[in-house]
Amino acid sequence: MVSAAERLASNVNFGAFSKATELKQRIWFTLAALVVYRLGTYIPIPGMDAAVLSEIFSQQQGGLLGMFDMFSGGALGRMTIFALNIMPYISASIIMQLMTAVSPKLEALKKDGEQGRQKINQFTRYGTVILAAVQAYGLAVGVEGMRGASGSAVLDPGMFFRITTVITVVGGTMFLMWLGEQITSRGIGNGISLIIFAGIVANLPTALASLFELSRTGAISAGLIVILLLLAVATVAAIVFMERAQRRIIVQYPKRQQGNKMYGGESSHLPLKLNTAGVIPPIFASSLLLMPVTIANFGGSSDSEWLNFISAYLGHGQPLYLAFYLGMIVFFCFFYTAIVFNPEETADNLKRYGGFVPGIRPGKNTATYLDYVLTRLTVLGAGYLAAVCLLPELLISQYAVPFYFGGTSLLIVVNVTMDTVAQIQSHLLAHQYEGLIKKSKLRGRRR
User: Fold this and answer.
1) Same domain for 393 and 270
2) Are residue 215 and residue 228 in the same domain, yes or no?
3) What is the CATH number of the domain that holds 122?
4) Which residues constitute the domain of residue 136?
Protein backbone atom coordinates (compact mmCIF):
# COMPACT_ATOMS: atom_id res chain seq x y z
CA MET A 1 0.00 0.00 0.00
CA VAL A 2 1.13 3.55 -0.75
CA SER A 3 1.21 5.92 2.21
CA ALA A 4 -0.32 9.39 2.19
CA ALA A 5 3.13 10.99 2.24
CA GLU A 6 4.19 9.03 -0.85
CA ARG A 7 0.98 9.98 -2.67
CA LEU A 8 1.57 13.62 -1.85
CA ALA A 9 5.21 13.39 -2.94
CA SER A 10 4.13 11.94 -6.28
CA ASN A 11 1.97 14.99 -6.86
CA VAL A 12 4.83 17.45 -6.25
CA ASN A 13 5.62 19.37 -9.41
CA PHE A 14 7.48 22.52 -10.20
CA GLY A 15 4.23 24.30 -11.01
CA ALA A 16 4.00 25.01 -7.29
CA PHE A 17 7.38 26.75 -7.46
CA SER A 18 5.82 30.18 -8.04
CA LYS A 19 4.02 29.93 -4.69
CA ALA A 20 7.05 28.77 -2.71
CA THR A 21 8.53 32.15 -1.77
CA GLU A 22 10.99 30.72 0.74
CA LEU A 23 12.34 28.23 -1.79
CA LYS A 24 12.95 31.01 -4.33
CA GLN A 25 14.85 32.98 -1.70
CA ARG A 26 16.96 29.93 -0.91
CA ILE A 27 17.77 29.40 -4.60
CA TRP A 28 18.74 33.06 -5.08
CA PHE A 29 20.95 32.89 -1.99
CA THR A 30 22.64 29.74 -3.33
CA LEU A 31 23.27 31.34 -6.74
CA ALA A 32 24.68 34.49 -5.11
CA ALA A 33 27.02 32.39 -2.93
CA LEU A 34 28.27 30.44 -5.97
CA VAL A 35 28.90 33.72 -7.82
CA VAL A 36 31.02 34.90 -4.86
CA TYR A 37 32.93 31.61 -5.07
CA ARG A 38 33.58 32.00 -8.78
CA LEU A 39 34.79 35.58 -8.31
CA GLY A 40 37.24 34.35 -5.68
CA THR A 41 38.77 31.87 -8.13
CA TYR A 42 40.13 34.87 -10.09
CA ILE A 43 41.77 36.74 -7.15
CA PRO A 44 45.47 35.76 -7.39
CA ILE A 45 47.91 35.17 -4.57
CA PRO A 46 50.42 38.06 -4.35
CA GLY A 47 53.80 37.49 -5.96
CA MET A 48 52.82 35.09 -8.78
CA ASP A 49 53.69 35.26 -12.49
CA ALA A 50 50.45 34.32 -14.30
CA ALA A 51 52.13 33.64 -17.69
CA VAL A 52 54.61 31.13 -16.25
CA LEU A 53 51.87 29.40 -14.22
CA SER A 54 49.70 28.98 -17.31
CA GLU A 55 52.63 27.45 -19.18
CA ILE A 56 53.45 25.02 -16.35
CA PHE A 57 49.87 23.88 -15.73
CA SER A 58 49.26 23.30 -19.42
CA GLN A 59 51.92 20.58 -19.16
CA GLN A 60 50.39 19.05 -16.00
CA GLN A 61 46.82 18.43 -17.20
CA GLY A 62 47.17 14.66 -16.90
CA GLY A 63 48.69 14.64 -13.44
CA LEU A 64 47.57 15.27 -9.89
CA LEU A 65 47.65 19.03 -10.46
CA GLY A 66 45.28 18.67 -13.40
CA MET A 67 42.76 16.71 -11.34
CA PHE A 68 42.81 19.14 -8.40
CA ASP A 69 42.67 22.08 -10.80
CA MET A 70 39.46 20.55 -12.17
CA PHE A 71 37.95 20.27 -8.68
CA SER A 72 38.95 23.87 -7.87
CA GLY A 73 37.38 25.29 -11.02
CA GLY A 74 40.75 26.45 -12.39
CA ALA A 75 41.68 28.25 -9.14
CA LEU A 76 44.79 26.10 -8.64
CA GLY A 77 46.05 26.75 -12.18
CA ARG A 78 45.62 30.50 -11.67
CA MET A 79 47.04 30.16 -8.10
CA THR A 80 44.28 32.19 -6.48
CA ILE A 81 43.06 32.54 -2.89
CA PHE A 82 40.83 29.47 -3.44
CA ALA A 83 43.70 27.36 -4.81
CA LEU A 84 43.02 24.47 -2.41
CA ASN A 85 39.27 24.86 -2.83
CA ILE A 86 37.27 22.84 -0.27
CA MET A 87 39.42 19.70 -0.59
CA PRO A 88 41.11 20.03 2.87
CA TYR A 89 37.65 20.06 4.48
CA ILE A 90 36.62 16.96 2.53
CA SER A 91 39.86 15.20 3.51
CA ALA A 92 39.33 16.15 7.17
CA SER A 93 35.73 14.88 7.02
CA ILE A 94 36.83 11.54 5.57
CA ILE A 95 39.58 11.22 8.19
CA MET A 96 37.03 11.90 10.95
CA GLN A 97 34.74 9.21 9.51
CA LEU A 98 37.64 6.75 9.54
CA MET A 99 38.57 7.75 13.09
CA THR A 100 34.96 7.38 14.21
CA ALA A 101 35.00 3.77 13.01
CA VAL A 102 38.30 3.10 14.81
CA SER A 103 38.06 5.14 18.04
CA PRO A 104 35.43 4.02 20.61
CA LYS A 105 35.35 7.54 22.14
CA LEU A 106 34.54 9.20 18.81
CA GLU A 107 31.98 6.49 18.05
CA ALA A 108 30.26 7.16 21.38
CA LEU A 109 30.41 10.89 20.65
CA LYS A 110 28.74 10.27 17.28
CA LYS A 111 25.86 8.49 19.01
CA ASP A 112 25.46 11.34 21.50
CA GLY A 113 22.86 13.15 19.41
CA GLU A 114 23.14 16.71 18.11
CA GLN A 115 25.65 17.79 20.75
CA GLY A 116 28.02 14.98 19.79
CA ARG A 117 27.72 15.78 16.10
CA GLN A 118 28.55 19.42 16.78
CA LYS A 119 31.72 18.39 18.60
CA ILE A 120 32.73 16.13 15.71
CA ASN A 121 32.09 19.00 13.28
CA GLN A 122 34.28 21.23 15.43
CA PHE A 123 37.08 18.63 15.34
CA THR A 124 36.64 18.50 11.56
CA ARG A 125 37.10 22.26 11.33
CA TYR A 126 40.29 22.09 13.39
CA GLY A 127 41.54 19.31 11.13
CA THR A 128 40.70 21.43 8.10
CA VAL A 129 42.88 24.28 9.37
CA ILE A 130 45.81 21.94 10.02
CA LEU A 131 45.54 20.16 6.65
CA ALA A 132 45.07 23.43 4.77
CA ALA A 133 48.12 24.97 6.47
CA VAL A 134 50.32 21.96 5.64
CA GLN A 135 49.09 21.80 2.04
CA ALA A 136 49.40 25.56 1.58
CA TYR A 137 53.01 25.54 2.79
CA GLY A 138 53.80 22.61 0.49
CA LEU A 139 52.09 24.47 -2.35
CA ALA A 140 54.17 27.57 -1.68
CA VAL A 141 57.43 25.60 -1.61
CA GLY A 142 56.42 23.69 -4.76
CA VAL A 143 55.51 26.85 -6.65
CA GLU A 144 58.86 28.41 -5.75
CA GLY A 145 60.56 25.52 -7.54
CA MET A 146 58.45 25.84 -10.68
CA ARG A 147 60.17 27.35 -13.69
CA GLY A 148 58.94 27.90 -17.20
CA ALA A 149 60.60 29.00 -20.39
CA SER A 150 60.26 32.66 -19.37
CA GLY A 151 61.51 32.29 -15.79
CA SER A 152 60.35 31.45 -12.28
CA ALA A 153 56.66 31.27 -11.33
CA VAL A 154 57.31 33.34 -8.17
CA LEU A 155 58.51 36.91 -8.54
CA ASP A 156 60.16 37.16 -5.10
CA PRO A 157 60.61 33.73 -3.45
CA GLY A 158 61.42 33.45 0.22
CA MET A 159 59.94 32.99 3.67
CA PHE A 160 57.76 36.10 3.37
CA PHE A 161 56.14 34.67 0.23
CA ARG A 162 55.54 31.32 1.98
CA ILE A 163 53.93 32.92 5.04
CA THR A 164 51.77 35.16 2.85
CA THR A 165 50.67 32.20 0.73
CA VAL A 166 49.81 30.05 3.77
CA ILE A 167 47.72 32.81 5.38
CA THR A 168 45.96 33.66 2.11
CA VAL A 169 45.19 30.10 1.04
CA VAL A 170 44.12 28.90 4.50
CA GLY A 171 41.85 31.94 4.81
CA GLY A 172 40.33 31.16 1.41
CA THR A 173 39.69 27.52 2.37
CA MET A 174 38.05 28.51 5.67
CA PHE A 175 35.89 31.06 3.86
CA LEU A 176 34.74 28.37 1.43
CA MET A 177 33.97 26.05 4.34
CA TRP A 178 31.86 28.79 5.93
CA LEU A 179 30.21 29.54 2.57
CA GLY A 180 29.33 25.88 2.11
CA GLU A 181 27.76 25.74 5.56
CA GLN A 182 25.72 28.86 4.74
CA ILE A 183 24.47 27.28 1.51
CA THR A 184 23.49 24.18 3.48
CA SER A 185 21.57 26.10 6.16
CA ARG A 186 20.22 29.11 4.24
CA GLY A 187 20.27 27.77 0.68
CA ILE A 188 19.01 24.57 -0.89
CA GLY A 189 21.48 22.28 0.92
CA ASN A 190 24.57 20.28 -0.13
CA GLY A 191 26.76 23.38 0.13
CA ILE A 192 30.15 21.65 -0.06
CA SER A 193 29.04 19.46 -2.98
CA LEU A 194 27.63 22.45 -4.86
CA ILE A 195 30.94 24.30 -4.58
CA ILE A 196 32.80 21.38 -6.19
CA PHE A 197 29.98 21.04 -8.73
CA ALA A 198 30.26 24.72 -9.67
CA GLY A 199 34.01 24.40 -10.15
CA ILE A 200 33.67 21.46 -12.54
CA VAL A 201 30.72 22.82 -14.51
CA ALA A 202 32.35 26.26 -14.90
CA ASN A 203 35.13 24.71 -16.99
CA LEU A 204 32.93 22.43 -19.10
CA PRO A 205 32.46 25.09 -21.83
CA THR A 206 36.26 25.37 -22.13
CA ALA A 207 36.52 21.58 -22.38
CA LEU A 208 33.86 21.50 -25.10
CA ALA A 209 35.66 24.27 -26.98
CA SER A 210 38.90 22.29 -26.76
CA LEU A 211 37.11 19.22 -28.09
CA PHE A 212 35.70 21.09 -31.09
CA GLU A 213 39.09 22.70 -31.68
CA LEU A 214 40.60 19.23 -31.98
CA SER A 215 38.02 18.48 -34.68
CA ARG A 216 38.75 21.74 -36.50
CA THR A 217 42.46 21.06 -36.62
CA GLY A 218 41.84 17.50 -37.81
CA ALA A 219 43.22 15.79 -34.70
CA ILE A 220 39.95 13.84 -34.34
CA SER A 221 37.08 13.40 -36.80
CA ALA A 222 33.62 14.93 -36.51
CA GLY A 223 32.09 11.46 -36.39
CA LEU A 224 34.21 10.61 -33.38
CA ILE A 225 32.99 13.76 -31.60
CA VAL A 226 29.38 12.70 -32.18
CA ILE A 227 30.18 9.23 -30.81
CA LEU A 228 31.88 10.77 -27.76
CA LEU A 229 28.92 13.04 -27.03
CA LEU A 230 26.47 10.14 -27.38
CA LEU A 231 28.70 8.06 -25.13
CA ALA A 232 28.71 10.86 -22.54
CA VAL A 233 24.89 10.98 -22.61
CA ALA A 234 24.70 7.19 -22.25
CA THR A 235 27.18 7.32 -19.36
CA VAL A 236 25.10 9.97 -17.58
CA ALA A 237 21.96 7.84 -18.04
CA ALA A 238 23.79 4.79 -16.66
CA ILE A 239 25.04 6.79 -13.65
CA VAL A 240 21.51 8.04 -12.89
CA PHE A 241 20.09 4.51 -13.12
CA MET A 242 22.80 2.94 -10.96
CA GLU A 243 22.83 5.70 -8.33
CA ARG A 244 19.07 5.41 -7.86
CA ALA A 245 19.15 1.61 -7.74
CA GLN A 246 18.30 0.14 -4.35
CA ARG A 247 17.80 -3.26 -2.77
CA ARG A 248 14.82 -2.91 -0.44
CA ILE A 249 14.84 -5.41 2.40
CA ILE A 250 11.39 -5.90 3.93
CA VAL A 251 11.23 -5.20 7.68
CA GLN A 252 8.19 -6.38 9.68
CA TYR A 253 7.08 -4.92 13.02
CA PRO A 254 4.94 -7.14 15.32
CA LYS A 255 1.57 -6.12 16.71
CA ARG A 256 1.37 -5.02 20.33
CA GLN A 257 -1.60 -4.22 22.53
CA GLN A 258 -1.86 -1.13 24.70
CA GLY A 259 -5.11 -1.03 26.63
CA ASN A 260 -7.95 -1.91 24.28
CA LYS A 261 -6.09 -0.89 21.12
CA MET A 262 -3.69 -2.79 18.87
CA TYR A 263 -0.59 -1.03 17.53
CA GLY A 264 2.08 -2.06 15.05
CA GLY A 265 1.85 -4.91 12.62
CA GLU A 266 3.23 -2.67 9.88
CA SER A 267 5.81 -3.54 7.29
CA SER A 268 8.52 -1.21 6.06
CA HIS A 269 11.70 -1.61 4.07
CA LEU A 270 15.41 -1.01 4.61
CA PRO A 271 16.91 0.59 1.46
CA LEU A 272 20.46 -0.46 0.57
CA LYS A 273 22.05 1.55 -2.24
CA LEU A 274 23.85 -0.28 -5.00
CA ASN A 275 26.73 2.20 -4.73
CA THR A 276 27.04 2.93 -1.02
CA ALA A 277 30.55 4.39 -1.32
CA GLY A 278 29.54 7.14 -3.78
CA VAL A 279 32.38 8.98 -5.54
CA ILE A 280 34.96 8.43 -2.77
CA PRO A 281 36.68 5.33 -4.35
CA PRO A 282 37.61 6.93 -7.71
CA ILE A 283 38.75 10.15 -6.00
CA PHE A 284 41.03 8.24 -3.62
CA ALA A 285 42.31 5.95 -6.37
CA SER A 286 43.04 8.85 -8.74
CA SER A 287 44.84 10.85 -6.05
CA LEU A 288 47.11 7.96 -5.03
CA LEU A 289 47.94 6.94 -8.60
CA LEU A 290 48.51 10.41 -10.03
CA MET A 291 50.82 11.46 -7.20
CA PRO A 292 53.90 9.50 -8.40
CA VAL A 293 53.23 10.61 -11.99
CA THR A 294 53.19 14.24 -10.91
CA ILE A 295 56.41 13.81 -8.89
CA ALA A 296 58.06 12.19 -11.90
CA ASN A 297 56.93 15.05 -14.16
CA PHE A 298 58.34 17.61 -11.72
CA GLY A 299 61.63 15.75 -11.93
CA GLY A 300 61.85 16.77 -15.57
CA SER A 301 64.47 15.09 -17.70
CA SER A 302 66.03 12.84 -15.10
CA ASP A 303 68.36 9.88 -15.50
CA SER A 304 66.67 8.09 -12.59
CA GLU A 305 65.40 4.70 -13.68
CA TRP A 306 62.42 4.62 -11.32
CA LEU A 307 61.25 8.09 -12.44
CA ASN A 308 61.47 7.00 -16.07
CA PHE A 309 59.61 3.78 -15.20
CA ILE A 310 56.81 5.72 -13.50
CA SER A 311 56.49 8.14 -16.41
CA ALA A 312 56.41 5.28 -18.93
CA TYR A 313 54.08 2.78 -17.25
CA LEU A 314 51.90 4.74 -14.82
CA GLY A 315 50.63 7.35 -17.26
CA HIS A 316 47.01 7.67 -18.41
CA GLY A 317 45.84 4.66 -20.42
CA GLN A 318 48.86 2.47 -19.66
CA PRO A 319 47.99 -1.16 -18.76
CA LEU A 320 49.75 -0.99 -15.37
CA TYR A 321 47.97 2.26 -14.50
CA LEU A 322 44.57 0.81 -15.47
CA ALA A 323 45.24 -2.37 -13.45
CA PHE A 324 46.16 -0.41 -10.32
CA TYR A 325 43.23 1.96 -10.87
CA LEU A 326 40.79 -0.94 -11.12
CA GLY A 327 42.20 -2.63 -8.02
CA MET A 328 42.11 0.55 -5.93
CA ILE A 329 38.53 1.37 -6.92
CA VAL A 330 37.38 -2.11 -5.87
CA PHE A 331 39.35 -1.93 -2.62
CA PHE A 332 38.05 1.50 -1.61
CA CYS A 333 34.47 0.48 -2.52
CA PHE A 334 34.54 -2.33 0.05
CA PHE A 335 36.60 -0.36 2.55
CA TYR A 336 34.43 2.76 2.58
CA THR A 337 31.18 0.77 2.51
CA ALA A 338 32.33 -1.13 5.60
CA ILE A 339 32.88 2.21 7.33
CA VAL A 340 29.61 3.95 6.49
CA PHE A 341 27.31 0.93 7.00
CA ASN A 342 27.56 -1.36 10.02
CA PRO A 343 25.33 -4.48 9.66
CA GLU A 344 25.62 -5.38 13.35
CA GLU A 345 24.56 -1.91 14.49
CA THR A 346 21.64 -1.91 12.05
CA ALA A 347 20.53 -5.37 13.22
CA ASP A 348 20.71 -4.25 16.88
CA ASN A 349 18.59 -1.18 16.13
CA LEU A 350 15.96 -3.30 14.38
CA LYS A 351 15.89 -5.71 17.32
CA ARG A 352 15.61 -2.85 19.80
CA TYR A 353 12.50 -1.48 18.11
CA GLY A 354 10.95 -4.90 17.52
CA GLY A 355 11.62 -5.05 13.79
CA PHE A 356 12.75 -8.18 11.99
CA VAL A 357 13.40 -9.42 8.47
CA PRO A 358 10.84 -12.11 7.55
CA GLY A 359 12.45 -15.55 7.67
CA ILE A 360 15.59 -14.29 9.48
CA ARG A 361 16.09 -14.49 13.24
CA PRO A 362 16.78 -11.10 14.90
CA GLY A 363 20.26 -10.24 16.10
CA LYS A 364 23.34 -12.00 14.77
CA ASN A 365 21.52 -13.84 11.93
CA THR A 366 20.06 -10.55 10.68
CA ALA A 367 23.51 -8.93 10.75
CA THR A 368 24.95 -11.86 8.77
CA TYR A 369 22.14 -11.60 6.22
CA LEU A 370 22.60 -7.82 5.83
CA ASP A 371 26.36 -8.28 5.40
CA TYR A 372 25.73 -10.95 2.72
CA VAL A 373 23.35 -8.71 0.77
CA LEU A 374 25.60 -5.67 1.13
CA THR A 375 28.65 -7.60 -0.12
CA ARG A 376 26.82 -8.69 -3.27
CA LEU A 377 25.61 -5.12 -3.86
CA THR A 378 29.14 -3.76 -3.39
CA VAL A 379 30.48 -6.17 -6.01
CA LEU A 380 28.01 -4.74 -8.52
CA GLY A 381 28.70 -1.17 -7.37
CA ALA A 382 32.46 -1.64 -7.70
CA GLY A 383 32.03 -3.04 -11.22
CA TYR A 384 29.84 -0.09 -12.19
CA LEU A 385 32.34 2.47 -10.82
CA ALA A 386 35.23 0.69 -12.54
CA ALA A 387 33.42 0.73 -15.89
CA VAL A 388 32.43 4.40 -15.61
CA CYS A 389 35.94 5.49 -14.61
CA LEU A 390 38.08 3.25 -16.85
CA LEU A 391 36.27 3.93 -20.14
CA PRO A 392 36.98 7.70 -20.06
CA GLU A 393 40.61 6.95 -19.13
CA LEU A 394 40.96 5.00 -22.37
CA LEU A 395 39.36 7.82 -24.34
CA ILE A 396 41.63 10.41 -22.72
CA SER A 397 44.76 8.44 -23.56
CA GLN A 398 43.76 7.32 -27.06
CA TYR A 399 41.94 10.39 -28.42
CA ALA A 400 43.17 13.25 -26.16
CA VAL A 401 39.65 13.98 -24.90
CA PRO A 402 39.72 16.90 -22.40
CA PHE A 403 40.26 15.80 -18.81
CA TYR A 404 36.92 17.24 -17.70
CA PHE A 405 35.12 14.37 -19.42
CA GLY A 406 36.59 11.90 -16.94
CA GLY A 407 34.41 9.44 -15.08
CA THR A 408 35.04 11.08 -11.69
CA SER A 409 33.85 14.48 -12.88
CA LEU A 410 30.72 12.98 -14.46
CA LEU A 411 29.97 11.06 -11.27
CA ILE A 412 30.25 14.21 -9.15
CA VAL A 413 28.15 16.34 -11.49
CA VAL A 414 25.35 13.77 -11.85
CA ASN A 415 25.25 12.91 -8.12
CA VAL A 416 25.14 16.55 -7.01
CA THR A 417 22.47 17.34 -9.61
CA MET A 418 20.25 14.50 -8.39
CA ASP A 419 20.76 15.50 -4.75
CA THR A 420 19.93 19.13 -5.52
CA VAL A 421 16.73 18.18 -7.38
CA ALA A 422 15.75 15.98 -4.43
CA GLN A 423 16.35 18.91 -2.05
CA ILE A 424 14.15 21.20 -4.15
CA GLN A 425 11.41 18.58 -4.28
CA SER A 426 11.57 18.16 -0.49
CA HIS A 427 11.17 21.93 -0.05
CA LEU A 428 8.17 21.91 -2.41
CA LEU A 429 6.72 18.96 -0.50
CA ALA A 430 7.16 20.80 2.81
CA HIS A 431 5.46 23.84 1.27
CA GLN A 432 2.48 21.69 0.25
CA TYR A 433 2.28 20.24 3.76
CA GLU A 434 2.23 23.76 5.21
CA GLY A 435 -0.58 24.68 2.83
CA LEU A 436 -2.62 21.64 3.88
CA ILE A 437 -2.08 22.43 7.58
CA LYS A 438 -3.21 26.03 7.09
CA LYS A 439 -6.33 24.90 5.23
CA SER A 440 -7.21 22.39 7.94
CA LYS A 441 -6.84 25.08 10.62
CA LEU A 442 -9.09 27.47 8.69
CA ARG A 443 -11.75 24.78 8.31
CA GLY A 444 -11.54 24.02 12.05
CA ARG A 445 -12.09 27.69 12.91
CA ARG A 446 -15.11 27.94 10.59
CA ARG A 447 -16.73 24.98 12.32
Assistant:
1) yes
2) no
3) 1.10.3370.10
4) 16-220
Same domain, 204 and 234: no
pLDDT digits (tens, 9 = 90+) for 137-162: 888 887 887 777 777 778 888 889 89
Residue 41 shares a structural domain with residue 165:
yes
Domain end (from 167, 186, 220): 220
Instruction: Output the average pLDDT for the chain.
Output: 79
This prediction's pTM: 0.78
Per-residue confidence at 357, pLDDT binned at 50, 70, 90?
confident
Domain identity same for 331 and 315: yes
| Domains: count for the chain | 2
Mean pLDDT of 36-61: 80
Same domain, 208 and 227: no
Is residue 423 included in any domain, yes or no? no
Q: Which of 197, 220, 243 marks a domain boundary?
A: 220
The 3-state secondary structure of the chain reads CCCHHHHHHHCCCHHHHHHCHHHHHHHHHHHHHHHHHHHHCCCECCCECHHHHHHHHHCCCCCHHHHHHHHCCCHHHHCECCCCCCHHHHHHHHHHHHHHHHCHHHHHHHCCHHHHHHHHHHHHHHHHHHHHHHHHHHHHHHHHCCEECCEECECCCCHHHHHHHHHHHHHHHHHHHHHHHHHHHHCCCCHHHHHHHHHHHHCHHHHHHHHHHHHHCCCCCHHHHHHHHHHHHHHHHHHHHHHHCEEEEEEECCEEEECCEEEECCEEEEEEECCCCCCHHHHHHHHHHHHHHHHHHHCCCCCCHHHHHHHHHCCCCCHHHHHHHHHHHHHHHHHHHHHHCCHHHHHHHHHHCCCECCCCCCCHHHHHHHHHHHHHHHHHHHHHHHHHHHHHHHHHHHHCCCHHHCHHHHHHHHHHHHHHHHHHHHHHHHHHHHHHHHHHHHHHHHC
Taking only the tens place, the pLDDT of each residue in 183-229 is 988 888 888 888 888 888 887 887 778 777 877 777 777 787 788 78
Over 80: is that where the pLDDT of 396 sits?
A: no
